[in-house]
Amino acid sequence: MESSAARLRTQKQLDEKHMRALVRFTARSMDTPSPVPFGALIVRTSTGERFMHALNAVRTENDPSSHAELRTVRKAAKKLGTPSLQGFTLYTTCEPCPMCMANALWAGIDRVVYGATIEDANRHCRQIQIASREVVGRSDMHCIVDGPVLRDDCYSLFTHPNMLKVFATWNPKPS
Q1: 130 Cβ contact list (under 8 Å, min separation 6)
Q2: Active-site pick, 2, 49, 69, 119
């Protein structure tokens, strides 16, 4: 029988493996005309099988709700033919905003694992400063929130030179 410490080590290794893959996927956008530091990945909780991923497309789709997490949930639910994503874990390069966390709750996602924090993102672009755990705590729905995981790797997406140039064109933060 596996000890709880061994299970935690195994889960940490799995989380880091998925987050590294997500960072690589998201980093590919840095060499495009529309780089984004926000990527999301949904995996089957029981097997760790990667199921769906997407990037933020707010600017390219001119849709303020086209966050990576929402796009990934939409694609996964459509592929499954059900709005329920119970049995799945959502990995995201940045802590989900309240809209994305609420969407994860409505979808019934088991777990959310994030990399960079809302505070990290807020150094570069506007953010709603409500932590994911607070959104869960104010809900009657259950979801485990873990993070930050590989925070430095995820934050490096925000500080990539191409991303810094793009941030300058986004809604500037008031001085």
Answers
A1: 97, 98, 118
A2: 69
